Amino acid sequence: MSVAAVVVSYNRVDLLRKCLTGLRNQDRQPDEIILIDNGSTDASVAMVRQEFPAVSVYETGANLGGAGGFAWGIERALAAGHDAAWLMDDDAEPLPGSLRPLVEAMEGAPSRPGFVASLVVNPAGEPNKGHLPDQSSDIGRQLKASALGGVAVDSASFVGVLIDLKAAASMPLPYADFFIWFDDAEYTRRLSRGAYGVVLPQSRISHPEKQNQKDMGGRLYYFIRNNLWFHRLDPSPRTLLHNPVRWGAGMAATAIVQGLRASDRRLWLTSTFKGLTEGLFRTPRTIWPGQLLNESVRIGR
């Protein structure tokens, strides 16, 4: 099985160096490392070309966010003919021996999972609370995952998730319009819906704990809009369409707390209003594999 590691990077040259070093030190190395650089201005690309000349570098020319970067990464992995893609941000550090069990599980499964993910840990080696996967309640999926030595999950973050590119070729790319937040959960949920998803504890990838953002500022717009998009796009019974009161109460509480913490009340108000209106009355563009490469769809500037 041919595997591409896909790394999305933006202005974090020191963390990127650690990430690429971790990939280079794997006992089962990726067949290709694809770096999607989102318009970095900190000499990241120059560092990669000097220190990691084997890495395939693609420069987007603009900051497309994690969502746009991973859409491009999967597009290029598919075009290169790989069977699977191991996705991660530049602040992820694959620990030794992390890729091999993922590949062996995907290759050896009687029915191939949509994705097999590493367990995300913090620098202390404990499960990372900001990247806990969404455990599946389906007993049949749990039995399949257990046979592979893992736990069945419905979604995972883009931090060390190995996706089946055959499944990816049959569905739209990650929604680039999300920009940040919820794009990974939405995409991996699609992959697991047609098959199942697995987390393997024996494969580990280190990632800093998420910092609690007391004041989201303008990012509140993405949080509200993408949360609404995420639930609208999910046909499962757990979505807001089946429990709009609970979701609305949760969003209202988040907006109120953010309003109390906001250093710029006007920005808070416009972010909340824009997030709600776009989340309710717009949908992200659907981009199919191949459309980015043939330029029938463009993202960013």
UniProtKB/TrEMBL annotation:
Q: Which InterPro entries match?
A: Glyco_trans_2-like (IPR001173), Nucleotide-diphossugar_trans (IPR029044)
Q: Which Gene3D superfamilies match?
A: Spore Coat Polysaccharide Biosynthesis Protein SpsA, Chain A
Q: In which pathway does it act?
A: Cell wall biogenesis; cell wall polysaccharide biosynthesis
Taking every annotated instance into account, which residue ranges of this chain make up the domain Glycosyltransferase 2-like?
A: 6-109
* Keyword annotations: Glycosyltransferase, Transferase
An example Pfam family from this entry, by short name, is Glycos_transf_2
Recorded family membership? Belongs to the glycosyltransferase 2 family.
Q: What is this protein called?
A: Glycosyltransferase family 2 protein
